[in-house]
UniProtKB/TrEMBL annotation:
Entry keyword annotation includes 4Fe-4S: no
PANTHER family: HEXOKINASE (PTHR19443), HEXOKINASE HKDC1 (PTHR19443:SF28)
Example of a GO biological process term: glycolytic process
Residue ranges constituting the Hexokinase C-terminal domain according to the UniProt record: 222-448, 651-884
UniProt keyword list: ATP-binding, Cytoplasm, Glycolysis, Kinase, Membrane, Mitochondrion, Nucleotide-binding, Repeat, Transferase
Cellular localization per UniProt: Cytoplasm; Mitochondrion membrane
Organism name: Sparus aurata (Gilthead sea bream)
Biological or metabolic pathway of the protein: Carbohydrate degradation; glycolysis; D-glyceraldehyde 3-phosphate and glycerone phosphate from D-glucose: step 1/4; Carbohydrate metabolism; hexose metabolism
Domain Hexokinase N-terminal: 24-216, 459-643
Mitochondrion among keywords: yes
Name this polypeptide is given: hexokinase
Length: 914
């Protein structure tokens, strides 16, 4: 029995006072929990947490996995939308994370009661409408933002972006939602609206959002608490030895649903439970959260009035009205000082005396104090569990907190903290109120989720990068080269241009989408300048697939034509020959074609020296002469072109019809070439990566089909996954399969769609252009004979993105392998280098370059890479190589004649003396 002498102020006779004090105290007594009772609640909460973890969802405390594995680390960036449903208001928010800073814009919307308790479709349509209004307000309707959805109800999750509503709580009761995935429901509502699109990346409980929000400020924050309309806690739990932690949404509001709190539940609580929309459920929540505290107070006031202890025993209709006594009044009454409780009571239509006011305040105090103590007992169980999980004697931890009760009530936060301290003396718990609600946290989780996705991708890419590095080494070794997929061909180019090159040169450029002949004049008046003229010639299908003789006759004929037009048929200019196929070289002006790639398949050329074949064809004509001084791969030409502008350039890559890379390797590592001093450019021929089966794990059925239908099955497998000649076809094959399964074009397959080559890589580039992508897609798909719906556009564009993203990522992994090798060769902690790039895919695709650069920088973090686009093709580079060769040959001719004369002199001298 509780006896206190607090009613001495009351304006009643002494005997009446004693009786009043006694009776009011008696009524409030069950709300006053002893230390022992609170210890018991703590123990029951602890047992509830353990049982929930073991039984996975079937016990009173659900312990729901959130699929959030870590708190923010400050690297999150980008713009995110956050939708926040389930607290007092619905809130839409835009969060922009930039350099450890978050900028927020939000708008609050009310959800009318009839919507909260209408149909699920109405509820989600209403949310979509609010989002639409917010996007208008922000001017971001077309932004297709990633979004995080704070949904403050218990959800069964199987991934970060799915959540099946277990049961409604608080004031919600919309039909057809329980048992359904709320993310799908939101997506469908957005689709129904057909006005904007969102990429919903994550669904999170408000506790999780709050924890993340606060952890952004304080890394020790590993618990989220809501003391608002409802109540709940989440915390970082050790889920297994390997993965370490995952945030668990406890749904502690369910404690007592199995009867474990019956000994502390008062008749008033029972009444509140009976009148709620979910009787028997959320028993702990009904003792502690904002939605119910006012109701409990009203029940007590009703009882006291009926007993004649309040309002002169006068029970008004107002007092009988459920919900009339809101929790905010509780906070206001307990703030006491300036506020006249009587005026609040009057506002409620309750005419009370001063004495009544004191009693009402007592009631409010008892109810709110019990709530804060119970939350404190629960919190003590949580922090003790974390401490024990980690095997610590002492734990320092921060709890991120949100909710109107915590924030607005004058004593709740203090009592909560005191109780936690007393019941968990080995833990030092800091409560950190969340400033911006859990929306910011939901946005952070979306950012983390995206990063996690990227990390897992990086995991695969890191593997590929490492494999590629091993293959590079294998191709360089004398014994391992014969069986290596990467041929690592020496090019006999030993340095990049040094600015001393000069002269008048012809460059032939064969093997890309165009056959081009160029005249390159390099002069040195004041500074080095380059003049170029070029012409593109046709290489018809029948020529590139005919005999080798015809092909080289054609090249010689085009060269004759070009020289005639240039009026230089009578000169014997030095010629550089860019030949974009794998060639075995032992010197600069010799190249034995190993195998044709891409579209070329002229007979009788493989195994032959292409310089000889071209010389033969020129000689056969007899109308002009040419001095072919160098044959270079297009990657080498590109590296040299870019090296002309940037001396740091030591890698050349092509991402066009085909793909390939070359780089400057230390001569001591190239077993196939004599000598240890200096460097030589090596043509990796990376298109053949995987030809030994190394990429089987990641090749898809579509890659295999492309390979089967190609002119070189089993070869250039990496090239076939990533380069321009094949990407369009990959998209077409995927679309055919999707159509067969009825996923696009209403299952209709047209003859055009079935025609090989009808969908080109340039179409991918056009569709992925954000501005005109949609109308282009319509045009392209119409040409394929299909009548696409809006959904079809979006699916086709997603397929394009998947295929082009994969390409950029795979190329990034291989390029990262080369950069790692350069770094190792140089023995530097940080590599500063330039990569020269050319090729139609890289140049034409709207996002390819950006994606590639980003992925490379992520894979080799300690590198400053400059990506330099080769503006003038590889012809200019071929001319540079020729210039060096010409100078060497020229100076060696002088040297030989000098040596001969010296020799002659010596022999004369010799003869004379001896
Ligand atoms: C935060 C969150 C809400 C959450 C609320 C609880 O502000 O953003 O999603 O439900 O706290 O507070 P309330 O007191 O409104 O229930
Ligand atoms: C450069 C070179 C070509 C090379 C081409 C690759 O422009 O001069 O020799 O083959 O890039 O691009 P493409 O996209 O035409 O295959
Ligand atoms: C819900 C929780 C939520 C809490 C606080 C409870 O009713 O079940 O999911 O976290 O309210 O909003
Ligand atoms: C060839 C390479 C060439 C690349 C880019 C590949 O098919 O094998 O030699 O560099 O295409 O054009």
């Amino acid at each position: 029995m509780c006896h206190h002498n607090r009613f001495l102020l009351l304006n009643v006779a002494k005997s009446d006072i004693i009786s009043l004090v006694f009776q009011v105290d008696e009524t409030l007594c069950p709300f006053k929990l002893s230390q022992e009772q609170l210890q018991l609640v703590k123990a029951r909460m602890r047992a509830g947490l353990e049982a929930g973890l073991k039984t996975k969802g079937s016990s009173a405390i659900k312990m729901l996995p959130s699929y959030v594995y870590r708190t923010p680390d400050g690297t999150e960036h980008g713009k995110y939308l956050a939708l926040d449903l389930g607290g007092t208001n619905f809130r839409a928010m835009m969060v922009n994370f930039k350099r450890q800073n978050a900028r927020l814009y939000h708008k609050i919307y009310t959800i009318p009661l009839e919507i909260m308790q209408g149909t699920g479709e109405e509820l989600f349509d209403h949310i979509a409408q609010c989002v639409s209004d917010f996007l208008d307000y922000m001017g971001m309707k077309n932004a297709h933002l990633p979004a995080g959805f704070t949904f403050s109800f218990p959800c069964e999750q199987t991934a970060i972006d799915t959540g099946t509503l277990v049961s409604w709580t608080k004031g919600y009761k919309a039909t057809d939602c329980e048992g359904h995935d709320v993310v799908s429901m939101l997506r469908e509502a957005i689709k129904r609206r057909n006005e904007f699109d969102l990429d919903i990346v994550a669904v999170v409980n408000d506790t999780v959002g709050t924890m993340m929000s606060c952890a952004y400020e304080d890394p020790q924050c590993e618990i989220g608490l809501i003391a608002g309309t409802g109540t709940n806690v989440c915390y970082m739990e050790e889920v297994d030895a390997e993965l370490s932690k995952m945030c668990i949404n406890t749904e502690w509001g369910g404690l007592g649903d199995d009867g474990s709190l019956d000994d502390i539940i008062t008749p008033y609580d029972m009444e509140v439970n009976q009148n709620s929309i979910n009787p028997g459920r959320q028993r702990f929540e009904k003792l502690t959260s904002g939605m119910y505290l006012g109701e409990i107070v009203r029940q007590v006031l009703l009882d006291l009035t009926r007993g004649g202890l309040l309002f002169r025993g006068h029970v008004t209709e107002t007092l009988k009205t459920p919900g009339i006594f809101e929790t905010k009044y509780l906070s206001q009454i307990e703030r006491w000082e300036k506020l006249c409780v009587r005026s609040i009571l009057q506002q409620l239509g309750l005419k009370g005396t001063c004495d009544d006011s004191i009693i009402v305040k007592e009631v409010c105090g008892a109810v709110s104090r019990r709530a804060a103590q119970l939350c404190g007992a629960g919190m003590a169980a949580v922090v003790d569990k974390i401490r024990e999980n980690r095997g610590l004697d002492h734990l320092n931890i921060t709890v991120g907190v949100d909710g109107a009760l915590y924030k607005l009530h004058p004593h709740f936060s203090r009592v909560l903290k005191d109780t936690t301290e007393v019941l968990a003396p080995q833990c030092n718990v800091t409560f950190l109120p969340s400033e911006e609600g859990s929306g910011k946290g939901a946005a952070l989780i979306s950012a983390v989720a995206r990063q996690m996705h990227a990390d897992s991708l990086s995991g695969t890419l890191l593997d590929i990068m490492q494999q590629f590095r091993r293959e590079l080494a294998k191709g360089l070794g004398r014994d391992t080269n014969p069986t290596a997929a990467l041929k690592m061909l020496p090019t006999f180019v030993r340095s990049i241009p040094d600015g001393s090159e000069k002269g008048d040169f012809i460059a032939l450029d064969l093997g890309g989408s165009n056959f081009r002949i160029l005249r390159v004049k390099v002069s040195h008046e004041k500074k080095q300048t380059v003049q170029m003229e070029s012409q593109i010639y046709d290489t018809p299908e029948d020529i590139i697939h005919g005999s080798g003789t015809r092909l080289f006759d054609h090249v010689a004929e085009c060269l004759g034509d070009f020289m005639e037009k240039q009026n230089i048929k009578d000169k014997k200019l030095p010629v550089g020959f860019t030949f974009s196929f794998p060639c075995q070289q032992t010197k600069l002006d010799e190249g034995f074609l190993i195998t044709w790639t891409k579209r070329f398949k002229a007979g009788g050329v493989e195994g032959m020296d292409v310089v000889k074949l071209l010389n033969k064809a020129i000689k056969k004509r007899g109308d002009y002469d040419a001095d072919i001084m160098a044959v270079v791969n297009d990657t080498v030409g590109t590296m040299m072109t870019c090296g002309f502008d940037d001396q740091r350039c030591e890698v050349g890559i092509i991402i066009g019809t085909g793909t390939n890379a070359c780089y400057m390797e230390e001569l001591r590592n190239i077993d196939l070439v004599e000598g240890d001093e200096g460097r030589m450019c090596v043509n990796t021929e990376w298109g053949a990566f995987g030809d030994d089966g190394r990429l089987e794990d990641i090749r898809t059925e579509f890659d295999r089909e492309i390979d089967r239908g190609s002119i070189n099955p089993g070869k250039q497998l990496f090239e076939k996954m990533v380069s321009g000649m094949y990407m369009g076809e990959l998209v077409r094959l995927i679309l055919v399969k999707m159509a067969r399964e009825g996923l696009v074009f209403e299952g209709r397959i047209t003859p055009e769609l079935l025609t090989k080559g009808k969908f080109e890589t340039k179409h991918i580039s056009a569709i992925e252009k954000s501005k005109e992508g949609l109308s282009k897609a319509r045009e392209i798909l119409t040409r394929l004979g299909v009548e696409p719906s809006t959904d079809d556009f979006s699916l086709v564009s997603q397929v394009c993105t998947v295929v082009s993203f994969r390409s950029a990522n795979l190329i990034a992994a291989a390029l990262a392998g080369i950069l790692m090798r350069l770094k190792e060769n140089k023995g530097v902690a940080r590599l500063r280098t330039t990569v020269g790039i050319d090729g139609s895919l890289y140049k034409m695709h709207p996002q390819y370059a950006r994606r590639l650069h980003k992925a490379v920088r992520r894979l080799v973090p300690d590198t400053d890479v400059r990506f330099l686009l080769s503006e003038s093709g590889s012809g200019k580079g071929a001319a540079m190589v020729t210039a060096v060769a010409y100078r060497l040959t020229y100076s060696s001719r002088i040297f030989w004649s000098y040596l001969q004369s010296v020799h002659a002199f010596f022999s004369i001298y010799h003869r004379n003396v001896f």
